Amino acid sequence: AQDLLPIINHKLDAVVPSDIRRFDKYVSQFDDVVKLTLGEPDLNTPEHIKQAAIRDIENNDSHYGPQSGKPELLQAISKYVKGVTGVDYDPASEITVTVGATEALNCSLSALLNDGDKVIVPTPVWSMYMQLVCLTGATPVEVDTSDTGFILTPEKLEEVIEREGKGVKAVMLNDPTNPTGVTYPKEVIEGLAEVIKKHHMYAISDEIYSELIYGDAKHYSLATYIPDRTIFISGLSKSHAMTGWRLGYICGPAEIMASVRKMNDFMITVVTNNVQAAAIEALTNGLDDPKEFRDIYQRRVNFMEEGLKKLGFDMALPRGAFYIFAKIPEKYQGDDVGFAKSLAKDARVGVIPGSYFGAGGAGYVRMSYASSDEVLKEALKRITKFVEAE
Ligand code: PLP
After folding, report:
1. Which residues line ligand 1 (CB under 6 A)?
2. With left for phi above 0 and alpha for psi between -120 and 50, is residue 11 left, alpha or beta?
3. What confidence tens digit (pLDDT) does each residue in 250-284 have?
4. Is the model's pLDDT at 28 over the cut of 70?
5. Start-end of CATH 3.90.1150.10 domains in the chain
6. C-alpha dihedral (255, 260, 262, 264), degrees to nearest 10
C-alpha cells in the first residue's frame, strides 16, 4: 500500500511556479533585451545599512538568536509601525520578524486558514497571493476590480461575501497595489474595515509599498481601524532596496500572533542575525532613505507616463509602488500576452502581461520603473519604434 501513496503533497499540484518569473525567463532568452519585468529596485541598499551588517558579522554575532527576532529590532518595528498605523504593537507578543514579506504572507495564511476556508483576493494582484492561499488548502476567491479603478470597494466586498455564503474567512489587501500602482483612499479603507468587522472576518494587509507613494497620495492602513482583525505585513525589500536581504515582518493582535509566531518558529527558527542588524539600522537611522528613492521613482514615472500616453497606452497615473499598469493600444485587441511576446521578440523590451495578475488584468501590461533611467529611456525608445511601425 505504501507504493500507492502519492509521493508529492497534492496541494503542490494546485499551484504553478510564478508566471512572472517564467515570462521573465522567456524575455531573457533574447539578446540585448531591456527588461521592465521584475519588481526589483535597480538602486543599491544604503551604505550605512550595509555597514551595520558587516559590523554585526565582525562582532561574531553567529549564534542562535531569540525566536521571533532580536528585541531591539522588534522595538524598532513597533515604533515604525506605530507611525504608519497608529497602533501600539507589543514587541514581546505582537510582532515577528520573517524572511521577507513572502514568508510573512505564507506564515500568516498558514496560521489562519483551515482546509476549505475561502479568502477574498482582489485582482489584478501579485500572482503569488492565489498560490499561497492554495498551498494552505484554502480557496482563493478572485474579485475583479477593473471596473472600480482597480480598487476593492466596500460594496464589492459585501457583494462577494453575500454571493459566497459561508466560509469566507479573510480578505487579502495589497495597498499600494502591485501591479496597478493604485493606493486606497481613506474612505474606502474605512468602509472595508466596517464590512470586515460586520462579517467577523480578518484582513491580511500587505503594505510593503507603503513608503513608495507619490504626489498628494497618502497611505491608510486597515490596522488603524480594525487592529484586532488585521494582520499587518511589511518589510524592507522595497522601501530600502533590500530585496536580496530577505527581511519582512508581521504585526497583529496577540491571540493571532501566538499562532503566527509558532508557525514562524517551525518554518525558519529565526531570521539571520546580520540581516536583522541591518534592519535595526534601517528602521532607526534609515527612516529617511525611502524619500530619496521616492523622488527618483517619481521622476521616472512622470517620464514613462508622458511617453506611453503619446503612444495610445491608457493608464492611470500610478500613486504608489513602482509599476505602471497600462492598457495596450486598441490595435492589439486586448491580447496582452501576444503583445508582450512580440514586444520582447521584435523590439527587445520585456514587460509582463496583465492577465498574469488575475481577473481584470487582460488587455494590460505591467512595466516596472524600478529600472535605471538609461534602461527606461531605451525601453521607451524601442516601444515607440515598435508601436509606430506596426
Ligand atoms: N508583496 C507584494 C505585493 C510584492 O509585490 C512583493 C514582491 O514583489 C512581495 C510581497 C515580496 O516581498 P519580499 O521580497 O519582502 O518577500
Report:
1. 39, 100-102, 126, 174, 178, 206, 208, 235, 237, 243, 248
2. alpha
3. 999 999 999 999 999 999 999 999 999 999 999 99
4. yes
5. 2-45+289-389
6. -160
CA distance 221 to 115: 28
pTM score, whole prediction: 0.96
Report the amino acid identity of residue 116.
G
Q: Does domain 2-45+289-389 have CATH number 2.30.30.220?
A: no
Cα(327) to ligand 1 centroid in Å equals: 23
Q: Which has the closest alpha carbon to 107: 291, 241, 265?
A: 265
Residues 14 and 134: beta-carbon distance below 8 Å: yes
Residue 288 burial (CB count, 10 A): 8
In a 10 Å sphere around its CB, with 0-12 CB exposed, 13-18 middle and 19+ buried, how is residue 384 labelled?
A: middle
Q: List, for residues 213-264, the tens digit of each pLDDT value.
A: 998 899 999 999 999 999 999 999 999 999 999 999 999 999 999 999 999 9
How many angstroms separate the CA atoms of 39 and 59, rounded? 33
pLDDT in tens, 309-351: 999 998 877 789 999 999 999 989 999 999 999 999 999 999 9
**When comparing pLDDT for 179 and 12, which is higher?**
179
CA dihedral 259, 263, 264, 270 (to 10 degrees): 110
- Which cell goes with 59? 562582532
Which of ligand 1's atoms lies nearest the C-alpha of 206? 1
CATH class of 47-284: alpha beta
Q: Taking CA 236 as the corner, what is the angle to CA 235 and CA 237, rounded to the nearest 5 degrees?
A: 100
User: What is the CA(129)–ligand 1 centre distance, in A?
Assistant: 10
- Where exactly does CATH 3.40.640.10 map onto the chain? 47-284
Q: Which helix (H) or strand (E) holds 287?
A: none
